[in-house]
Write a structure and sequence with these properties.
disordered C terminus; DNA polymerase, domain 1; three-stranded antiparallel sheet; hpI Integrase, Chain A; alpha+beta; four-stranded antiparallel sheet; 379 residues
Length: 379
């Protein structure tokens, strides 16, 4: 609306109702504080980008209405000067931020999450992504992949919380969205006898040793691939899982893992008597000792061995970590100890293995018979 048109509009308002205040804002638009016979409350009528809007002050007192008008003008001005950022730009900025604090795998997952959201919404300004849009995105992705939707939801929720902190948005739209309940599947794992059976289908000594260490330590594959000679202390029978310039643990925390006899013998045989401490020499390697095995290589080889052995397709390389935790729980090791050995950041992660201890469940049920309890005696 032009300046002449705005003044003309104000004149018409003065004829129809009581115009108490006329304000030319810093935004180049106009505001009117009026009180008409249609409402007991003062109303603010304002123009912005040529569009006229009315909003109630929710008060019939002029002093309070004027205070509302002043605060409302400041709010509009703040919104006008607030930096506008689109989804692509924010995604790149956020990804650059977490690159130094999160694992490479997680960082790649965050970029994928932003890509999926952009494919659904388009490259919208960040403040245009509201609760309804987010809810539709989560619902659609959940129908395609429950685990994928859960990951997108968690990573984007964290990202938009940072956007709120940076004042790109007023509030995080993901906070109002509830993720549909996920199906819970018990982790697939191998008993010791099943693992020994599997080893019979693995020819390469390197891979036999690698998988055996995973089975008896619960290390993540990436942690073992990046384990160096300097991380091994045979005298104390300990290995140190540490962060380096090229690798970081999932939790970013270092931990000490004790060796059982099988793992100790593997490291004893694989460690050279003399080595240069100033070089990155890995325990497990194929081409050269300063080039580690890759997770992709050992994963594919493991899956191939599972199929040769005719074992469940649900078993994969990470199942060796599940096996370590599950077998400890089945041996009645406390969840706290299992959590420390596995390097879980939350006890909730460790608690999923409590469901594998069916022996304890059976023992609990058997207590009913041993105590001669009967249904008739209950209640």
């Amino acid at each position: 609306m032009s300046m002449k048109g705005s003044y003309l509009f104000g004149l018409i308002l003065s004829l129809l109702c009581s115009v108490h205040t006329f304000v030319s804002t810093d935004l180049g638009d106009f505001m009117y504080l009026i009180k008409s016979i249609k409402s007991p409350f003062y109303q603010v009528i304002f123009t912005r980008n040529g569009k006229r809007t009315t909003i109630s002050t929710k008060t019939s007192f002029k002093s309070e209405a004027l205070k509302f008008l002043n605060e409302f003008e400041k709010k509009l001005l703040k919104e006008e000067i607030k930096p506008q950022i689109d989804l692509q730009t924010f995604g790149d900025e956020y990804s650059d931020l977490i690159h130094t604090t999160k694992s490479k795998k997680y960082s790649l997952g965050v970029r994928l999450s932003f890509k999926k959201l952009r494919e659904f919404t388009g490259n919208l300004p960040l403040n245009k992504i509201d609760f309804r849009l987010v809810e539709k995105f989560v619902s659609l992705t959940f129908q395609r992949s429950e685990s994928g939707a859960a990951f997108y939801y968690r990573t984007l929720k964290a990202a938009f919380s940072k956007a709120e902190t940076w004042e790109y948005i007023e509030r995080n739209p993901f906070l109002k969205v509830k993720l549909p309940k996920l199906k819970t599947n018990l982790p697939s794992y191998l008993t010791e006898s099943e693992f020994n059976f599997l080893l019979g289908f693995i020819r390469e000594p390197l891979l036999k040793d690698f998988y055996t260490v995973l089975f008896y330590t619960g290390l993540r594959a990436g942690e073992l691939c990046n384990l160096q000679l300097t991380n091994i202390d045979l005298s104390q029978r300990l290995m140190k899982i540490s962060n380096t310039e090229t690798f970081s643990t999932k939790s970013k925390k270092e931990r000490l893992i004790p060796m059982n006899e099988a793992v100790f013998q593997i490291f004893k045989n694989r460690l050279p008597q003399v080595h240069r401490l100033n070089r990155k020499l890995y325990i497990f390697y194929r081409i050269a000792q300063d080039i580690p095995l890759t997770v992709d290589y050992v994963s594919k080889k493991f899956k191939s061995s599972i199929r040769k052995a005719g074992m469940s397709e649900n078993l994969h390389l990470h199942s060796l970590r599940h096996s370590f935790c599950s077998n400890l729980v089945n041996a009645n090791v406390s969840l706290y100890i299992v959590q420390q050995l596995a390097g879980h950041s939350s006890t909730k992660t460790t608690e999923i293995y409590s469901h594998t201890n069916t022996g304890s469940l059976q023992t609990a049920v058997n207590l009913l018979g041993n105590n001669n309890l009967s249904i008739n005696k209950i209640g």
